[in-house]
Write a structure and sequence with these properties.
Blueprint (H helix, E strand, L loop, with lengths): L5 H22 L4 H15 L2 H7 L8 H12 L4 E2 L2 H20 L6 H16 L4 H18 L4 H15 L7 H5 L10 E3 L1 E3 L9 E5 L5 E5 L4 E3 L24 H4 L8 E3 L21 H5 L5 H11 L14 E3 L40 H10 L11 E3 L13
Parallel strand pairs: 1-8, 3-6, 8-9
Antiparallel strand pairs: 2-7, 4-5
Length: about 400
């Protein structure tokens, strides 16, 4: 079912990206008109019709490196520019938030509710622009049509594919650490509380039947589980049956996520506790994992073809582009696990560039050059852009890595 994971991953990661950017635009005091313009441009790029057609096509799941390239392109489809360090940290936060939600699923069908919560959040974010909200609603209807009739077994396989994609990511997030959602090794913990899946009963009772059919039971204490709630709604509006997928960076939502004492570690035995709990524990991907996605000319062309679906964003007027430092302590000299160290057309001469080198001759060089040329958004050079400084006190929930 990894062939059907891509829309789920894009919508959930895109929702988390929208939440983070929305909070940072507010926290850093970006003028309301420019912040609204950023939101609209990013949502229009993320839900562009050609892009939707591409991700709903049955295909192998993209690696995290390719997903990083896609979301970098989406971010820079707006008048906002992020340096390589901010983009890398933003993507790590998106991935860990999505992984947290996948791990906490009590049943496979809850994954649909999580995705719809993200789509609802994005739609609410651009509610001031009805035409943009309409394309989000269209994508939501398409998602429900594609996944709403799936069996529990099919959805469980999609969830398993998502777990496989994210299993090696252990970046620590301050919010998760403070609430006991993560341990000091960066692994998530399962709460021993909350509602049980639909169709099941809270644990804590053993029933026995003798040969005559008489029943006897034994009750014991195991956590603080509650009876199953109502199934989540797949309608355009309604209760999705879960709070996962909502904006966790708002205190009213964060308080509803189970956490605290009485948690159980998920995964292998925890590694040694790092000296600093605020640093990232995510190790660089294996050497083979960095290059195997781009090892052939065919894969390189396919990756560029996917990114070229973002074409269609209006050209940005001179002087409208601005740079934003998301986390306040970003430094271009810091390591970026996803981007190369070469200059980028997107971010200016001093920023990083995603490069894809096709091995096997120059037969595709003209096609690649044409595709890369079409991907140029025609944005203003960052040298002429007005810089926006980060606030002196970065938003605590985003003090990650």
């Amino acid at each position: 079912m990894s062939l059907r994971l891509l829309p789920v991953a894009v919508f959930n990661l895109g929702g988390e990206m929208s939440y983070v950017l929305d909070e940072r635009l507010i926290a850093q005091g970006i003028p309301a008109d420019r912040a609204s313009q950023v939101r609209v441009q990013i949502v229009k790029a993320m839900f562009h019709p050609k892009f939707m057609d591409e991700i709903f096509r049955c295909q192998e799941m993209y690696t995290l490196q390719k997903l990083y390239s896609v979301f970098e392109r989406i971010c820079h489809a707006s008048i906002m520019r992020l340096n390589a360090s901010s983009m890398s940290k933003l993507f790590d936060l998106m991935v860990m938030s999505f992984k947290h939600q996948v791990v906490l699923c009590t049943h496979a069908r809850e994954l649909l509710g999580i995705t719809l919560n993200h789509l609802d959040g994005i739609e609410q974010m651009v509610s001031f622009a009805p035409d943009v909200a309409a394309i989000v609603q269209k994508a939501q209807r398409r998602f429900v049509q594609a996944y709403g009739s799936n069996t529990h077994g099919q959805l469980a396989m999609i969830r398993q594919a998502a777990m496989s994609l994210l299993q090696d990511k252990h970046t620590k997030v301050s919010l998760f650490l403070q609430r006991g959602i993560q341990d000091n090794s960066g692994r998530f913990c399962l709460p021993l509380s909350g509602p049980v899946p639909p169709g099941s009963q809270p644990p804590g009772q053993i029933c026995r039947f003798d040969i005559t059919g008489q029943q006897s039971s034994q009750v014991f204490s195991v956590g603080s589980y509650a009876p199953a709630g109502l199934p989540g709604s797949l309608a355009e509006t309604g209760n999705r049956g879960t709070d996962l997928g909502k904006n966790l960076f708002r205190k009213s939502i964060a308080a509803t996520i189970p956490a605290g004492p009485g948690t159980k570690n998920v995964g292998s035995t925890p590694a040694a506790t790092p000296k600093s709990s605020a640093k990232s524990s995510s190790a660089p991907p294996p050497a083979g994992d960095r290059t195997n996605s781009y090892s052939t000319a065919e894969n390189a062309v396919h990756g560029l073809d996917f990114l070229s679906q973002m074409v269609g964003v209006d050209s940005l007027p001179e002087g409208d582009v601005f740079k934003m430092n998301l986390f306040g302590d970003d430094d271009d000299a810091t390591g970026n696990l996803y981007a190369s160290s070469e200059p980028s057309k997107i971010q200016g001469p001093k920023a990083n560039k995603i490069t894809i080198e096709a091995q096997g001759g120059t037969q595709h060089s003209e096609a690649l050059s044409q595709i890369m040329g079409e991907m140029d958004l025609g944005g203003a050079s960052t040298e002429d852009a007005s810089a926006v400084d980060a606030d002196d006190n970065p938003f605590d929930l985003l003090d990650t890595i």
